[in-house]
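Quick start: read one record
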Amino acid sequence: MDIIYTDRQLNEINYLDERVYIDLEIGTYLSDSKNDFEITIPADQWDSNLDKGSIVFENDTNSEFGGRIQGKTSNTASNKIVFYGYTWRGLISKRYIKPAPGKAYYFARGDANEFLRNILDAEFDGLIVGASEDAGVEVNRDLRYVNMLEGIEKTLSDIGYRMKITMIVDQNSQGKISSRKFAVSAVPIIDYSDTKEYSNDGGYSLVAKDIENGYNHCICLGQGELTERTVIELFKLSNGMITQDEDLAVMDGIIGLNRRTMLYDYSSVESLDELINGGIDKLNENSDTKSLQISNVDNVEIGDIVGARDRITGIYMQKQIESKILSGYMNRIKIQYKVGD
């Protein structure tokens, strides 16, 4: 893998040396990923062009690995310099989607990529933008002071899509690179679970976790007082489906010791749909810990769905890829995938 670094003016300088160690993680808003990275360089190998404000990126226009350096530390005892930065998703997660003045909500409407252009293009000095072409599918969600990464993922997930980040290279009239930018586009979620199962039998390295420490029942309280208050109860089934049908929940085992209830209090909610959607979000954000870390997987992206099984414990999951972790020295890079909640 080749990773390029720039100076603070974003002029391309060189590739990171093989003695450089990198630890970079990208993930969804629901994952435990911080969407950041560290780059450790021997002090005698440091090129001072690489500094706060520089960007790093894989030399592959279809790769999302990269980000902006935010700062550094120097350790004279170890003779190393460590650079810290945010990935493209990390930078997006530091913004919020706000309603227009005088409006209660930001109304995400129209083509999915137009939505991305509208919220991204003016925020990152042209470095991170929405894809220029239309996606051919429309979004429909009301957003109010929501983290931008979360808002994008929820809005696209409503229509079965996920975000994809690619590098766009602009050239001048002489054919030389004049600028680079990172475009966010909406693409369909691909479900690989019916065609491929990742397991330790197949040579994949797995770390499995299955802990019932979340909630599977949410009581949603809306407008009104006492007996006049709107109350909706939601249940999250073992297959991930969320329903209001308590009989179905009981058949799924959500009863007695297996029922774990949370409260969602939203007295100022303006509609029943908004209350239900909010309760669904809360259940998804506070669900059981079911995860698998998978090594040596290729050709799947964050947001796509895979089937994974640990033969030792019998843990099986059919879930989205939530994060990718890139780590190692530049000549020995390892990529791990995390599946699950």
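The longest strand covers residues 316-329.
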